[in-house]
Automatic annotation (TrEMBL):
The modification 4-aspartylphosphate is found at D53. Gene3D superfamilies: 3.40.50.2300. One of its GO terms (biological process) is phosphorelay signal transduction system. Residues 4-118 form the Response regulatory domain. Keywords: Phosphoprotein, Two-component regulatory system. The keyword Aminoacyl-tRNA synthetase does not apply. It comes from Pseudodesulfovibrio indicus. This is Response regulator receiver domain-containing protein. InterPro entries: Bact_response_regulator, CheY-like_superfamily, Sig_transdc_resp-reg_receiver. The keyword Phosphoprotein applies. Pfam families: Response_reg. PANTHER family: PROTEIN PILG, STRESS RESPONSE REGULATOR PROTEIN 1.
């Protein structure tokens, strides 16, 4: 099953190049070059992973991560940045980011992290489904 990825970055050339490289590896990629486009994409699609730029002009990655965690707590977010700092990495991980990588990201390492994100999301969905089934069985008294 192809991994569904939302790639958010304000650098259009980087976005297009990374998107193409990910699609060559069999992923379904949706791109957003601004925070507002990302919010629209989040409302319209279901993703296994989000690859998010830390520095964007309309909203930084930390603020976007907070918004994503609030509205889609099960989504796995990988932050990408060209200006990594230890503080930003720690803050991102505390807010629930799955990982934090520096640009230019090694495409094989990024692909591996996206596959792990998909697997993690599947486990979360299975646990939620199991809980729902158990709750229904208990409420019906079967």
């Amino acid at each position: 099953m192809a991994e569904k990825v939302l790639l958010i970055d304000d650098e259009v050339e980087f976005l297009e190049a990374l998107s193409e490289r990910m699609e060559i590896r069999g992923m379904e990629v949706t791109t957003a070059e601004s925070a507002s486009n990302a919010v629209d994409a989040l409302g319209a699609g279901d993703y296994d992973a989000i690859v998010l730029d830390l520095q964007m002009p309309d909203m930084n990655g930390i603020e976007m991560l907070k918004l994503i965690r609030k509205s889609h707590p099960d989504l796995q977010v990988i932050l990408l940045t060209g200006q990594a700092t230890l503080e930003a990495g720690i803050q991102a991980m505390k807010l629930g980011a799955m990982d934090f990588m520096e640009k230019p990201a090694d495409i094989d390492a990024l692909t591996d992290k996206i596959k792990k994100a998909q697997a993690k999301k599947m486990v979360i969905v299975e646990k939620k489904t199991e809980k729902k089934v158990n709750d229904i069985l208990k409420s019906k008294g079967w």
